[in-house]
Every structure is written in structure tokens, then in C-alpha cells.
Amino acid sequence: MNRKLLVFVSSTYKDLQEERQAAVQAILKAGHIPAGMELFAAGDKSQLETIYNWIDECDVYMLILGGRYGSTDKETGLSYTELEYDYARSKNKPFFSVVIKKEALEAKVKVKGTEVLETENPKLLKNFQEKVLSSMSSFFEDLKDVKLAVYESLGDFSLDPELSGWISGKEIPDVSALRAEIDSLKATNAALEAKATRGRSATKTSDSVDFEELNLILLATPVTIPKAAWDPPKKEDVIVTLHAAMLQEADRLVAGVSSYGSNEYMKYLYFSLLPKLQVLGLAENEKPPGSSARRSYLNKEGQRYLAWLQRKALEKK
């Protein structure tokens, strides 16, 4: 899907308006979404909490650091810009920074005067610069350098499957047909389960009876493998049984498949095959901690059933 990353742009305000505007333009031109402190009142503690919430929602944090330190928080003595930076880093947000070159700052002073220089807290600014330069950062001399840093950094971040980004509603696939098929499978499963319950012995001591009944469902359930999922692609879609598909992809299903499948075959596994197994109680879907992607995999019951199938195959040999 065409993800748009939400990029938080942080900087001091008055001295870096042109640079921030250049960054915003570059973010938009790269197909992503900018957000920044110009949306909020500077130096307001309650607004700082709002900014923290925005940083939480953002995919990427960008810092533009010029010749000013900015307004400071009375409690910590740190500037609000540095507090934003520290917060983004504490949340392990993907980030990049651009720092003004000494020559560029001197040229800026000649044009705009000393208002672009830090006169109240030069030591704090120096400490902040050293902190920033110790991590992922680059220098800028003009607006072109700021835009280039945006293009290069977002080009790399856009390839990261862990970043969820923002997706247009029209990009979301229509799964109504899949839902209808799942409902049909549920009805079939319920009917077979009712039949199995009526004929099941109260003294049953083995799972083999349950698995035999489950096997009949898998043998009777078709699975369509899209032609684009094959390598090389086939001319037509291929229809197999759920039983055959499960045996064929046993290792992948046990290991699990991510919702950010990198090719058409992985998408077939995640959106077509595994949901059918999930309806039958053989698979589960989860969102691992710290990840924006979901993962489907065979659960313990599915693995037990798979082992039973493999034992049966060996017995036939």
C-alpha cells in the first residue's frame, strides 16, 4: 500500500522559518505528511503535552538546529526544542537532524542581525549541538541542503516495514468476498461439529477422531492461489484443497507470516490461507509488542494437527 509517513518537524521558531518551510515543502513533495511546532503555542506546558502526543503519533522526527537555543522550560531549564528532541529519542522514534554550518550562520547574521544568535544560553546551545551531532545528523548551508536531507532520509525510512504510516481508505483492499467465504466456512464447520458431537463417544481417549473430522473439512475446502503469487506467474489461478495448501506451506505457517508481506505469495498466505485456518481454530493473529505489523501463525492446536497429518503420511509409506 502507498504509505504516507507522518513527520514531526522541530526547530526554534523565528530564526528558522524559511528552513522549516523548505522542510515542509520537501516532505510534501516526497509524498509524506508534515507536522510541527508552528501548530502550537511556544513555551506553554500544556501545549508541550499536546506536542508529546503528536510525536507519539508521528512515524519520523526531524530536528532543524540553527543558532538559537529557544524558550526554556522553568522546571527543567531546557529549551522546548531540546525537550521535544529528548522525548522523541526516549520513544525510539526514527529521526534525523540538520544543523546549520558556522559559515551559514555568520551569513545569516549579516542579513538578519543578532536575533538569529543565542545570547542568553550559549552554553546550553553548545551542549545541545554536541548531543545532536553525536547521533544521526548532517549540516546545512542553505535551503537546498535542508530539502536534500529530507529526501534522502525519508527515502530510507519509507522502506522500513515497521513504520505503519498513514494509508488512504481507498488503498484498503475489499475483503467482503473473504468475509463471505469465512462466514460460509463457519457455517460448514458448525454443521460438521454438530454432526461430530452427536456421533462422538463419551469415552473417547484420543484426538484422532477430532482430527479425522477436521481432515474432512480441509479436504473439502478449496483454496485459490492467485496466478501472480507464483514465480514465475502462471496464466491462471490455481485451486487446491486447504489440506494440500497446509501441508505444502507447513514450515512458513509454523514460523508465521507478517501482514507486511513482501510479495504476492506472502500476501496470499496472510490474507487467504491463514484466515481459513484461523476459522477452524488452527491459527491465530497477533500484533507483536513494538511492531506496527500483525502476524498470523499456526497455534498449538494447528501444530498438533499438522504433526498428526505428517504421522499419517509416514504411516502410508
Q: End-to-end span in angstroms?
A: 45 Å
CATH H-level superfamily of the largest domain? Toll/interleukin-1 receptor homology (TIR) domain
- Structural class assignment: alpha/beta
Please provide the ordered H/E string of secondary-structure elements: EHEHEHEHHEHHHEEHHEHEEH
Report the CATH architecture of the largest domain.
Answer: 3-Layer(aba) Sandwich
List low-pLDDT spans: none
Question: What is the CATH fold-level name of the largest domain?
Answer: Rossmann fold
Tell me the major beta sheet.
5 strands, parallel
Give the overall pLDDT as a whole number: 84
Which range best describes the helical content: under 10%, 10-25%, 25-40%, 40-55%, 55-70% or over 70%?
40-55%
CATH class category of the largest domain: Alpha Beta
Number of strands: 10
Number of domains: 2
Total helices: the number is 12
Q: What gyration radius follows from the Cα positions, in whole Å?
A: 28 Å
Strand order of the largest sheet: 2-1-3-4-5
% residues in beta strands: 5-15%
What does this structure look like?
- With 317 residues, the protein is of the alpha/beta class.
- It folds into 2 domains: 6-157, Toll/interleukin-1 receptor homology (TIR) domain (Rossmann fold, 3-Layer(aba) Sandwich); 174-316, no CATH class.
- The protein has 12 helices and 10 strands.
- Strand 3 (60-65), helix 3 and strand 4 form a beta-alpha-beta unit.
- Helix 7 (176-199) packs parallel to helix 11 (264-279).
- It starts with 5 loop residues before the first strand and ends with a helix.
- The model has no long low-confidence stretch (mean pLDDT 84).
